[in-house]
Structures are given as structure tokens and as C-alpha cells.
User: Which sequence fits this backbone?
């Protein structure tokens, strides 16, 4: 039993939800495809978009815009760190780790991990404030990312200049909503180009722009955020 698995089982014991720690899916060694402990037991059903979807999105747009405002030179962006200002602890260690060089790529805890806990921690740093957006399409786009699915080949990370991490996951300051299958992320316009570079080389079709995958929902979001969101 690996150390990370022991830590995960210990974690579930602490929260008295041990039943999911033994829920496994076989790893395909030929592709190094990783799908194991089913943390999604606790996640919302797919296609359930509560008020929290909209309020979290508004808070995340405001949060990322404030980060962008701090960038002095947009030609010299460290894509590995700029939208990873939030780095919560996960199983007693920082979620993201780096090799110490100036432009090293972000590595995460071993997949699978509990996105729910990390998202809750990330949202704590984003203020709840009244917001209204005339057209969010002018500010960025929403990406739908299929969780816990990666080859660990490093291509999306390298092609995106480290914008997605070594497990192909968009940066945590972009996360805003989670379902059993998908993590929803807000990608500001400044970062759409590196995100698209990751999409172009990722082989499992894990990423989808919401405007393409669910245009009806996209239109509903645009209209909803024209109103006051708290």
C-alpha cells in the first residue's frame, strides 16, 4: 500500500466516511490512465447548477480580475504561479509543489484527491460582494474539465507554459464549481491562449469550452450575471 493511499484512508477514517476509500477502478498500465478512489461520491450530480454556481462564478471573475490588475508586464507572466496564489494544505502539505526553479511547473497531490475540500478552501479567499457583468464573454470563458483523467505525459502542461499543471488541471484560482464528473473553471481572456494550447494536445478530450459544449447554459449564465449577484 502506497503512502498516499494510507494517508487517504486515514483521512476518510477521520471524517467517518471510510466506505468510499475502497471504491477502486483498475488502472490501465498501457496508458497510465489513473482513475481510482471515488471522491465524487460526495460531489453534486452532473447538470445540477445551483445558485452557488452563479455566485461562485461572480466571485471568481472578481478575484481573477484583481490578480490580473497586479501584473505589471503582461509579456513576462509566470503562467505556473500567477493563478495559483491560493495553495491550500491537503493532507498536511501544500497542494502545489515546485522544483525550486523560477519557472518550474506546478505539481499536485497524487490523483485522485478530494476536489471538494480544495475548492471550499479556495473560495474562502474570494470576497462575497455585489456584482453585475454586462457581458462576461468580454472578460473570459468557462472551461469544463473532466476530473481524475490524465496520462501524466506532461504535454498540456508544457504546451500551456505551465498554465495547467502536471496533472492537466487548470489553476485553482480559476476553479468555481464541481460536479461528479466536471470541474468548472473561469479562464480570463488573458489566459485563453495558453488554455487553448493545452486543449490542442490533450488526448482524452478532458477540456471543453462551455460555449461549445452547452451553449444554452452559456447564454443563461450571460443573462443571469447581468443581474445583481451576491
Assistant:
Amino acid at each position: 500500500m502506497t503512502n498516499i493511499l494510507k494517508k487517504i484512508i486515514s483521512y476518510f477514517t477521520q471524517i467517518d466516511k471510510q466506505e468510499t476509500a475502497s471504491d477502486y477502478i483498475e488502472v490501465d498500465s498501457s496508458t497510465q490512465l489513473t482513475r481510482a478512489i471515488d471522491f465524487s461520491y460526495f460531489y453534486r450530480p452532473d447538470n445540477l447548477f445551483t445558485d452557488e454556481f452563479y455566485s461562485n462564478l461572480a466571485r471568481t471573475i472578481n478575484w481573477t480580475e484583481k490578480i490580473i490588475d497586479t501584473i505589471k508586464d503582461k509579456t513576462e507572466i509566470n503562467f505556473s504561479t500567477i493563478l495559483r496564489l491560493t495553495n491550500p494544505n491537503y493532507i498536511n502539505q501544500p497542494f502545489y509543489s515546485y522544483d525550486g526553479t523560477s519557472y518550474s511547473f506546478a505539481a499536485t497531490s497524487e490523483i485522485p484527491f478530494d476536489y471538494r475540500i480544495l475548492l471550499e478552501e479556495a473560495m474562502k479567499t474570494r470576497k462575497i460582494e455585489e456584482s453585475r457583468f454586462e457581458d462576461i464573454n468580454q472578460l473570459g470563458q468557462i472551461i469544463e474539465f473532466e476530473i481524475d483523467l490524465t496520462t501524466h505525459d506532461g504535454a498540456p502542461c508544457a504546451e500551456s507554459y505551465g498554465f495547467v499543471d502536471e496533472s492537466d488541471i487548470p489553476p485553482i484560482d480559476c476553479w468555481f464549481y464541481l460536479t461528479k464528473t466536471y470541474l468548472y473553471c473561469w479562464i480570463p481572456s488573458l489566459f485563453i491562449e495558453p488554455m487553448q494550447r493545452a486543449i490542442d494536445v490533450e488526448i482524452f478530450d478532458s477540456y471543453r469550452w462551455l460555449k461549445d459544449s452547452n451553449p444554452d447554459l452559456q447564454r443563461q449564465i450571460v443573462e443571469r450575471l447581468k443581474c445583481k449577484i451576491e
User: Anything to note?
Assistant: Residues 42-224 form one domain. Residues 3-35 have pLDDT under 50 and may be disordered.
